[in-house]
Automatic annotation (TrEMBL):
Keyword Membrane: yes
Names of required cofactors: FAD
Domain of life: Bacteria
Pfam families: BBE, FAD_binding_4
GO molecular function: FAD binding; oxidoreductase activity
Transmembrane regions listed in the UniProt entry: 12-30
Keyword line: FAD, Flavoprotein, Membrane, Oxidoreductase, Transmembrane, Transmembrane helix
Start and end residues of each FAD-binding PCMH-type domain: 58-227
UniProt name for this protein: FAD-binding protein
Family label: Belongs to the oxygen-dependent FAD-linked oxidoreductase family.
Length: 466
């Protein structure tokens, strides 16, 4: 290991000069200053809290140590140290886990926030370190006229996203993010490096089942695709909804999205009595596209078309907030069609509109995602066409209780309608049989692989595969 140019005290003083509130900016500052590849923080260190906090301000966990690691050797050192002290390990890359699964009380947090290198292996293959944020990835690959099908939020980490699946604007054409994952390197509970080129089980498990379960992923190789030349968005707004109007619109939306081209994506976002519907399409030819949802356009209060924008500009407009916020979001079922929720539409509407701050969203999946066999990757849900997500946001901790109570009622309602398949990257701590919901028929194989890679359950979080 290289010698540090700064003493730890000098180093922490320098860090303390940065704004504590600017969570992600601080990674960059640290990156410039850190010459050593490993820094261990405890509760007594002034920057402990800065690195402990995750994107979701609702969840507070206090690890005994935070190991900030810049290299594989540093990760190995952190794992061996945790073993020596008999501590469980949580792993963090982008820190966006809905339920704070990338942190652990009284254990070792391995913080990979500095591992952000991007290396091109050839014109189509790129090697990413785990904490590359999606905005880092796009900043690097769009100028090369390439894309990876990822999600839309700029500050989500590529590894957390890909290890649990990963969907977004390009998924119906190119599959989930994990479907473009070709190779990974993982450091296991003993500090051994495993290369998926020598161990095919590992790649299978990391395509949808790899979040925090088996070891620390330190390298990911992705296939890239030719970037589209433009990106078009169509936004419809509907205000002052009533229950019957909501039912009419959601039925029309499901109908309009049944036969979308693979280049298109759509989201139905009910926020109180206000509905936004988004369609996007990156096909060069947009002729006839609006016809698919012309009935919705006719009913909209407001309709905005943003055709043929530059891809970089369009993607940036969906990057979202960067600073940590209070929220409770979760998967709210994966549907084949409206029939999975039809009987509960009135009740869904009443509950979502009963308290301010709840959002019920349904996104299109399908296309290429469903062309892959459900046993071919750990991600199992290859037979559904829609992913729904329940969201709630608030500013002050005292607002949490009312929102989360209604949130859980809606989750129960959706379960009672028979919706039990859930998306692992949108976890809910309250899902009964969570791992069955996330991994379906692939759970058994994942459990066998947990025994193979991490028999002592060194890597742990509340919904770890056991
Ligand atoms: C604002 C926001 C927008 C989002 N948008 C989308 C979207 O458009 N599409 C989509 O599919 N998802 C989306 N998500 C969900 C996102 O995919 C997950 O939250 C994802 O797991 C976050 O990854 P991360 O690295 O940022 O988070 P982290 O909290 O660092 O990690 C998440 C999980 O992965 C594990 N993990 C992280 N790094 C590693 C590693 N190197 N090795 C092993 N395990 C690791 C952690 O232990 C944890 O269990 C969004 C989330 C948020 C908060």
């Amino acid at each position: 290991m290289m010698q540090n140019k700064y003493t730890k005290r000098e180093f922490l003083k320098l860090l303390g000069a940065g704004s504590l509130g600017i969570f992600f900016m601080s990674f960059y500052k640290l990156d410039n200053l850190l010459e050593d590849d490993f820094l261990l923080l405890t509760k007594n260190d002034s920057t402990y809290n800065q690195y402990r906090k995750s994107f979701n301000k609702r969840i507070e966990k206090y690890p005994k140590y935070i190991a900030i690691c810049k290299t594989d050797k540093a990760v190995q050192k952190a794992i061996l140290m945790a073993n020596d002290k008999n501590l469980k390990i949580a792993i963090r890359s982008g820190g966006h886990s809905f339920e704070g699964f990338s942190n652990i009380d009284n254990g070792m947090l391995i913080h990979l926030g500095l591992m952000k290198n991007i290396t091109w292996l050839n014109n189509e293959l790129v090697k990413l370190q785990p904490a590359c944020l999606l905005q880092d990835v796009y900043d690097n690959i769009l100028p090369k006229k390439r894309i990876i099908p990822t999600g839309s939020c700029g500050t989500v980490g590529i590894s957390g996203l890909a290890l649990g699946g990963g969907y977004g604007f390009f998924s119906r054409k190119y599959g989930l993010t994990c479907d473009s994952l070709l190779r990974v390197k993982m450091i296991d509970y003993k500090g051994n490096v495993i290369d998926s080129d020598q161990d095919k089980d590992l790649l299978w498990a990391c395509k949808g089942g790899g979040n925090g379960n088996f070891g620390v992923i330190t390298e990911m190789h992705f296939k890239t695709y030719k970037a589209p030349t433009s990106f078009s968005s169509y936004r419809l707004k509907f205000s002052n909804l009533t229950e019957s109007k909501f039912i009419q619109l959601i039925k029309l939306w499901f109908q309009s999205t049944e036969k979308l081209p693979q280049e298109a994506f759509s989201a139905f976002v009910l926020n109180g009595k206000f509905l936004t519907i988004l369609f996007t399409n990156f096909n060069e030819s947009q002729s006839d596209f609006e016809k698919q949802f012309s009935q919705l356009i006719a009913l909209a209060t407001n309709y905005k078309k943003m055709p043929n924008r530059s891809l970089a500009t369009a993607l940036k407009s969906y990057y979202g907030v960067k600073e940590p916020i209070y929220f409770k979001n979760a998967s709210a079922g994966l549907y084949q069609s409206i029939s999975d929720i039809e009987k509960g539409l009135s009740e869904i509407y009443r509950k979502v509109t009963s308290v301010k701050g709840i959002i019920y969203q349904v996104n299109t999946l399908g296309g290429k995602i469903n062309e892959i066999k459900s046993s071919a990757t750990a991600y199992p849900h290859r037979d559904v066409n829609y992913l729904s997500e329940l969201q709630s946001y608030w500013d002050k901790p005292e607002q949490e209780k009312a929102l989360v109570t209604t949130f859980e009622e809606i989750q129960r309602l959706l379960r009672d309608l028979g919706n039990t398949k859930q998306y692992r990257n949108y976890p809910d701590i309250n899902f009964p049989n969570a791992n069955n919901s996330y991994y379906g028929n692939n759970l058994k194989r994942l459990q066998e692989l947990k025994l193979k890679y991490d028999p002592k359950n060194t890597f742990d979080y509340p919904q770890v595969i056991k």
